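Justification of computing resources. Each target in the renewal requires a structure prediction run like the one illustrated here; the chain below, 441 residues long, is used simply to show the kind of job we budget for.
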Amino acid sequence: MIRKLFFLLLFQASLFSTSLFASDFTIANEKGKEVLDLFVNKKFAQIEAKVDTLYRSYYSAITLERDWNELLGTYGNFVSAKVVNYEKNQYYNFIAYKINFEYLPYIFNISYNEQGNIIYISFMPAHKIYVAPDYCDVTKFLERKITVHNGFYDLPGILTMPNDLAKAPLVIIVVEAGPTDKDGSYEENKPYKDLAWGLASKGFAVFRYEKRSNNYGIYLARDKAAYETFTPREDLLDDLYRSIDTLKTLPDVDPQKIYILGHGQGGMLAPLVAKERNDVRGIIMLGANAKRTQEMMIDQYKYLSTVTPNKKPEYDAQTINAIRSMDKKLNPLTEHDRMPYSVQATYWVWLNKYKHLEVSKKLKKPMLILHGDRDYQVNMENLELWHKTLDKNPNVTIKNYPKLNHLFYSGEVASTYSEYYLKGNLPDYLVKDICDWLSNH
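Resulting C-alpha cells:
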C-alpha cells in the first residue's frame, strides 16, 4: 500500500469563513475527483505530473500503478466514491473519499499545497480507521478547535458548525463515566463524533470536549492522595457550565437554543443541568440510568459474572464496594480502596444525595430519553422506571431500540464489553430521531 507519510500529522482542522469554505471545497473536490478518474482510467503518468516536484519520488507513475492494481486485484473493480472528510488551512487542502470496490471499501486521501500541487496521497482500509457514516455530509459543516478555560484547567474541544447558518442551535455532548474522550472512542468507533457530524449535517452546531480527568489525571491523582473533595461537579458539571458560558457568546451560536445531550452518567446528570441552567432549553438522555448509580453497577456486575465467569471474584469485590458506598452515613474520608473503582467517597456521598428521578419529575423543559434494549450497563429495568416516573409528563419523549447496546450500536446477540470494539457507526434512524426532536423543540 502507498506509504503513510508524516503529512498525516498536519491534518488539523482550522477556522475559515463560510464563503471561503464553499469555494475552496468545490475546488478541492474537483481536483480530487479528477485524480480518482485518472486512477480509474489508469492514467498514472498524468497523476504524477500533478504532484509537487518535492514529492514525485514518493508518488511516481510506477508506484501509483502498482498500488492501484494491487487494490483492484485484491478487492475487485472500483464502484463508487463519496466525500467523507474535508479540511483546510493556510498550508494545504485535504479531502478524503470513501471508495467502494466490489469486495471492500477503502479511504482515498489526497492533499494539495497552496500552489494546487499534490503533496500527499494514500489508500487506507476503511475498517481500520474512523469513517463517517453515510448520513454525514461533510460539505455542510466545518470544525474548529475551542479550548474552554476553567481556572487551572484548559479543556480542548471541537465545535462542529453548519456552514450555512448565521446562528445555529447548539448541542453540547456530556460524556459518560470513566476515562471517556470527546469522541467516546473505542478504537476506531467514535459515537460522539458520529453524533456531531450527523447533527451538523442537519443544521445543528455540536460541541464535544475532553473531560478533566483525561487531560489532568496526574493532578487529580495528587488531589485523591490528599483526600480532596471530588464529586460529579468537579468531574463534569463545573466544566460543562463554563463551556455553556463560553459558547453562548459566540456570534454563530444561538444562545436561546442550547441543548444538552448526555450519555450514561452524563445523561443522568442532564436533569440537574436543566434545573440549574436557565439557558438550557432542553435535554437528551442516551442510556441514562434511572436507578441509583451503584444499583445500576451491581446489576452490571451480576450480568457480567454470567458472561465472563472467570472474572466473578473481581465483580463480587466491586459489588461489595458498591453496597458499602450506598451507606447513608458514609464517611467522606473512607479509604479509596473500599469504594467502587477506588473513586473518592465524596463522589458517592454526592450521588447518594442526588435524586435524579425527583428532579426529572419536576422539570418543565423538553426531555428526550433514548434507550437500547441490549444495554447491559443500564438494563431495561431503568427504562421501565423512566416510564413509570415520566409517562404523564407531556414534555417528555421516551423511545427504545431493540437492537442497540449502551453505545447505541446495533447487534443481534447479548451484548458484552468486547462488542464495543467491533467496527461500526451509530444507525441513521437514531440520529434522525434526535434531529427530528430538536427540530420540533
